[in-house]
């Protein structure tokens, strides 16, 4: 099919694209943050190690701030400097190191994929975005593009949240930025824009611009290296869409990239009119009763009982205090009773509901769940035999608890 004529949402002038690449790369060379994975990607001579180093960083950075990731990344690369080392790790070790970083399935999938590279691909990372996405479980289009461009110099673009924001602003894309039509167009744009001789640096520059200058709420347009190419800024300064030579005006109301007619440009928002997203779904509310069982350990200090979660689903394989999801409208007395029954199954002996001491509530927000932990405590006298037929369980000291693969929510509970 013939391509549609260029509109104000396109980069249709090759000279402009060349200028934008040059300005962005020069800014990146001057202003980029020193990050451990960048140093490794730039200096590591072994291609497989380079790909692995970038892969780990990209997985950790999904949904997590750079400042939080740095320490986890350094510890991870120290413990498992190669794919081969990671392939030999246990899930328990991976969960322990990952504890506190959130979205725990990321670590698990990374380790499973490392095993596959070692056992099925001879220990060698695939070298192109297409092969990375096809052969490595858990590696999606973005991560594949990032590894291939940064580690192997493939001229392929990337689209993440930062790139979406920058491109939508540069080209006044105001349709729902999570819609397939917009996402497809942004990938086309990223692939067309990427610098052919420095693709990895270009992609990182675009993401860095989104992370440090073209930020969501108060972008620093005055300091932006590509402000002359930004149509959102132009619109803000001149109050109407800038006339663009040689491009078609968007048809009113039927352009798939313009803001919907029902939500036109809002001059009080300026460049932050872009990008736009469909309203987020409200997180699901859940209540879970959890009980901190405490006994006196052999060295005199307190010990706590933790049990392991199932190996799939939310917080898979992590350890927690014995917990039980509750119906939303249970009375407190009833909550105690169901929790006491649940504990009885672990301990193989009757547990009196009135012995459970209510401590308080802990709220923790997962990406899609608003979780309230209703926290009880139960001090125990003497020894307790745990039923081995139930999930794995163990007694831990305070220090051991913090070194275990436990979620941030459970640390709050303790
Ligand atoms: Fe973002 Fe402003 Fe730069 Fe445009 S000029 S890309 S809105 S920081």
Q: Describe it for me?
A:
The protein contains 16 helices and seven strands. The chain is α+β, with helices and mostly antiparallel strands. The protein folds into two domains: 7-223, Hypothetical protein, domain 2 (Endonuclease III, domain 1); 284-412, Nucleoside Triphosphate Pyrophosphohydrolase (Alpha-Beta Complex), CATH 3.90.79. Strands 1, 2, 3, 4, 5, 6 and 7 form a seven-stranded mixed sheet that branches. A hairpin with a 5-residue loop joins strand 1 (284-296) and strand 2. Helix 3 runs antiparallel to helix 9 (141-152). The model has no long low-confidence stretch (mean pLDDT 90).
Terminal residue distance: 62 Å
Percentage of residues in helical conformation: 40-55%
Q: Specify the number of helices.
A: 16
Work out the radius of gyration.
26 Å
Helix and strand pattern: HHHHHHHHHHHHHEEEEHEEEHH
- How does the overall form come out from the CA principal axes? globular
Main sheet record: 7 strands, mixed
| Poorly predicted ranges | none
By CATH, the topology of the largest domain is Endonuclease III, domain 1
Q: How many β-strands, per DSSP?
A: 7
| Distinct ligands, ions and cofactors found in the model | iron/sulfur cluster
Q: How many domains?
A: 2
Beta content comes to 5-15%
CATH uppermost class of the largest domain = Mainly Alpha
Task: Specify the structural class.
Answer: alpha+beta
What is the overall pLDDT average? 90
